[in-house]
Design a protein that fits this description.
The complex is a heterodimer of chains A (318) and B (52).
Chain A: H1 18-24, H2 27-43, H3 50-74, H4 76-79, H5 97-118, H6 121-141, H7 149-158, H8 160-169, H9 174-196, H10 199-205, H11 210-214, H12 216-235, H13 245-267, H14 288-317
Helix pairs in contact in A: 2-3, 2-8, 2-14, 3-5, 3-6, 3-8, 5-6, 6-7, 6-8, 7-9, 8-9, 9-12, 9-14, 12-13, 13-14
Chain B: H1 3-6, H2 13-50
The chains are: A mainly alpha (318), B mainly alpha (52).
């Protein structure tokens, strides 16, 4: 919200529909958060009333949605400048910043309050911290001030499995934090791969993403180095009692592919040629390696958590 | 339903329709929240009863 002189008023904008308020909650991010939060809850291997378990996951989802609304309220000025985000309800003029912020605050309070009343105070506290970290530490501070924004800010996206685990047990043991570490270390290669072919937009909006500030070559090296740390951590649950043979196969096999793609990206020239005005999702020849790693990183993270869900789900059924 | 009840603020058909949709969504949200609190209360009550 640095440049308040940017006009966000759109006299001809269509009136806001209920669906626009749903979009404020970033439903795709919510679905990922629900999945990882549920995985943490299931991995805790502690009997829990199924209705309370659903309520816990619902609170995590609503809390994540609230963070999204607060993010969109604060970032409306830069969202209006980027092709990927300019159609969002606030920059498009269908919802005011004040309304988005109000929705975010109300849903934050409700989600934390219900989590505290229905589940336990540790889960509620972790949820409150997650919302604060994403909305204040990442969105208001880090995002516009350092190329390390997603390295630190990624912690907010990594906390849902810990919240799920805490909801089931009232504690957050080392294995819960291992899930946190997996998502935290996955975030930099994932987002930097994306930013390699959307750097023009970030530069236009003044967001200091790694390729904008340090250049594409340095970013590709950072992606590779983070991948070297991330993959062993992703395999680690197979040796801490959290994951079984299925998990070992998925994390090991996928990890090899992840490292191969990260290595190929490191040696490539991805991001060296700036994307043109029409090329947001049109992959340039030199950026294909970045797009491949970005796409595979989503599949890999999903596969890791799906393997845990399958193993722990089957264990419960047995 | 008369024209005035469809558009009580004279804001145009599209805006009035959007407002009705938002109002219905708020009503559904509030109703769901009331049911949620009721369910939590019942679960906590029976949990405490069974705990002695």
């Amino acid at each position: 919200m640095r440049d308040t002189t940017i006009s966000l008023s759109h006299p001809a904008a269509a009136p806001a529909k209920a669906a626009d308020y749903v979009l404020l909650l970033k439903p795709r991010v919510m679905s990922l958060v629900v999945f990882t939060g549920f995985t943490g809850l299931l991995c805790a291997e502690t009997p829990m009333n199924p209705i309370l378990a659903v309520i816990a996951v619902l609170c995590i989802a609503v809390g994540a949605g609230a963070s999204g609304a607060l993010n969109m309220a604060w970032d409306a000025d830069i969202d209006a400048l980027m092709r990927r985000t300019r159609a969002r309800p606030v920059p498009a003029g269908r919802i005011s910043r004040a309304d988005a912020a109000a929705l975010g605050v109300v849903l934050s309070l409700l989600s934390v309050m219900v989590m505290g009343l229905a589940v336990n105070l540790l889960a509620a506290g972790l949820l409150a911290f997650t919302i604060f970290f994403y909305a204040v530490v990442y969105t208001m501070w880090l995002k516009r001030s350092t190329p390390q924004n997603i390295v630190i800010g990624g912690a907010a996206g990594a906390l849902p499995p810990v919240i799920g685990w805490a909801a089931a047990t009232g504690a957050a043991p080392a294995n819960a934090w291992l899930l946190f570490a997996i998502i935290s270390l996955w975030t930099p290669p994932h987002f930097w791969a994306l930013s390699l072919y959307t750097a023009t937009d970030y530069a236009k909006a003044g967001v200091p993403m790694m390729p904008v500030v340090k250049g594409a070559k340095f970013t590709r090296l950072q992606i590779f180095l983070y991948s070297l740390i991330f993959v062993p951590v992703a395999v680690a649950p197979a040796f801490t009692g959290l994951g079984g043979l299925t998990y070992l196969a998925v994390s090991g096999g996928g990890g090899v592919v992840f490292l191969m793609l990260a290595g190929r990206l490191w040696r490539s020239g991805a991001g060296d040629a700036p994307a043109g005005e029409d090329g947001l999702y049109q992959v340039k020849t030199g950026a294909r390696e970045a797009r491949d790693l970005f796409a595979f990183s989503i599949l890999y993270l999903f596969a890791l958590f799906a393997a845990l869900v399958v193993e722990h789900g089957l264990h419960r059924l047995a | 339903m008369s024209e005035s009840s469809k558009d009580p603020f004279g804001e145009g058909e599209a805006a009035a329709k959007a407002r009705r949709g938002r109002n219905l969504a708020i009503a559904a949200g509030l109703g769901a929240f009331v049911i949620l609190i009721f369910v939590i209360s019942i679960l906590k009550y029976y949990g405490n009863v069974h705990a002695g």
